[in-house]
């Protein structure tokens, strides 16, 4: 695969019998040069041993295909909530899961793990941010890897933290290992949180740079949204079928200030089939096909 300043791919599955090798094959079938995967089920922390996951076979195919492992993304499971320490057992489980996932990410050859910052569950945002920062301190002190965590921007539903750029910056600043932290910017989430990328993409990118710094932007999740700005709902939509629309997301993918950053689609399946091959093709070419999913 030729070198490309645009790294565009999607979430892919990892299932028996080929596991990671199958993940790589799936990504290549979509025309991807990056992809994101879970190291096990996203809803829990139960994990198969690394020795069973055909990692070396997958890494061999990655090398042969010209994909850069530094552009590959792992997503941490949703079970993690390190933004609330009111239940010590669950808080400790979240920290242990972060450590385990960092080590598993490293074993796959990836260097970036996306993490939802979590919910303060009524403790207040400031306490939630502090709880997460302390959890990350503990995890980074003992994980033994150089994998970076990309804190994902959230839409603001419930008691989530990481809704504003300022909150994400505070998480990074309160951690003792800021060099191990970056950001995953989700287009659906920031729209739903109140950032007007539909009408002022350049302004939002500039604000991110001033508050956090574009050097901290490690991943972009490219998703349309079912909701208007500031809805605080987080409901992804297929490219061109949502509030943001194709033109906005095409400009995100091709924005000169975002070159070299992995762009990952997490749009809904259509009749139980992945839409990513067509979405990737349209976003690369700029040629949108009306009613493409019908």
What does this structure look like?
- The chain is an alpha/beta fold and 294 residues long.
- It contains 9 helices and 10 strands.
- The strands form 2 sheets. The protein has an 8-stranded parallel beta barrel, surrounded by 5 helices.
- Helix 1 links the parallel strand 1 and strand 2 (35-37).
- Helix 3 crosses helix 4.
- It is globular, with a radius of gyration of 18 Å.
Question: What tags apply to this protein structure?
Answer:
two-stranded antiparallel ribbon; 8-stranded parallel β-barrel; alpha/beta; 294 residues
Q: How much of the polypeptide forms β-strand, as a percent range?
A: 5-15%
**Number of helix segments?**
9
Structural class from helices and strands? alpha/beta
What order do the helices and strands follow? EHEHEHEHEHEHHEEEHEH
Q: How is the biggest beta sheet arranged?
A: 8 strands, parallel, barrel
> Which percent range fits the helix content?
25-40%
Radius of gyration: 18 Å
Poorly predicted segments:
none
Arithmetic mean pLDDT: 96
DSSP E strands, number: 10
What is the distance, rounded to the nearest whole angstrom, between the alpha carbons of the first and last residues? 31 Å
The spatial strand order of the largest sheet comes to 1-2-3-4-5-6-7-10
Shape: globular
How would you briefly describe this protein structure?
37% of the residues lie in helices and 14% in strands. With 294 residues, it is of the alpha/beta class. The mean pLDDT is 96.
Helices and strands, with pairings:
Blueprint: E1 7-11, H1 19-29, E2 35-37, H2 55-65, E3 73-75, H3 88-107, E4 112-115, H4 125-142, E5 148-152, H5 165-174, E6 181-186, H6 187-193, H7 197-211, E7 217-222, E8 224-225, E9 236-237, H8 246-253, E10 262-265, H9 276-285
Parallel strand pairs: 1-2, 1-10, 2-3, 3-4, 4-5, 5-6, 6-7, 7-10
Antiparallel strand pairs: 8-9
């Amino acid at each position: 695969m030729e070198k490309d300043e645009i790294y565009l791919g999607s979430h892919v599955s990892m299932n028996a019998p080929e596991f990671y090798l199958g993940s790589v094959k799936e990504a290549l079938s979509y025309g991807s040069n990056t992809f994101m995967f879970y190291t096990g089920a996203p809803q829990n922390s139960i994990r198969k041993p690394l020795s069973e996951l055909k990692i070396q076979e997958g890494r061999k195919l990655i090398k042969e295909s010209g994909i850069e492992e530094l552009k590959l993304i792992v997503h941490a499971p949703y079970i993690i909530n390190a933004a609330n320490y009111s239940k010590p057992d669950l808080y400790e489980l979240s920290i242990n899961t972060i450590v385990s996932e960092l080590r598993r990410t490293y074993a796959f050859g990836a260097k970036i793990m996306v993490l939802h910052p979590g919910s303060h569950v009524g403790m207040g945002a400031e306490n939630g941010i502090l709880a997460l920062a302390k959890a990350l301190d503990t995890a980074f002190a003992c994980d033994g890897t150089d994998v970076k965590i990309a804190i994902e921007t959230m839409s603001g539903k419930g008691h989530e933290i990481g809704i504003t750029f300022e909150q994400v910056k505070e998480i990074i600043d309160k951690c003792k290992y800021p060099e191990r932290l970056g950001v995953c910017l989700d287009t659906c989430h920031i729209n739903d949180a109140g950032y007007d990328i539909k009408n002022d993409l350049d302004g939002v990118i500039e604000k991110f740079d001033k508050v956090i710094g574009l050097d901290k932007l490690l991943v972009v999740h490219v998703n349309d949204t079912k909701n208007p700005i500031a809805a605080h709902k987080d409901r992804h939509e297929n490219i061109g079928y949502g509030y943001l629309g194709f033109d906005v997301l095409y400009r995100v993918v091709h924005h000169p200030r975002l070159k070299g950053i992995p762009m990952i689609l997490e749009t809904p399946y259509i009749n139980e089939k992945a839409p990513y091959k067509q979405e990737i093709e349209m976003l690369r070419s700029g040629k949108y096909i009306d009613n493409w999913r019908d």
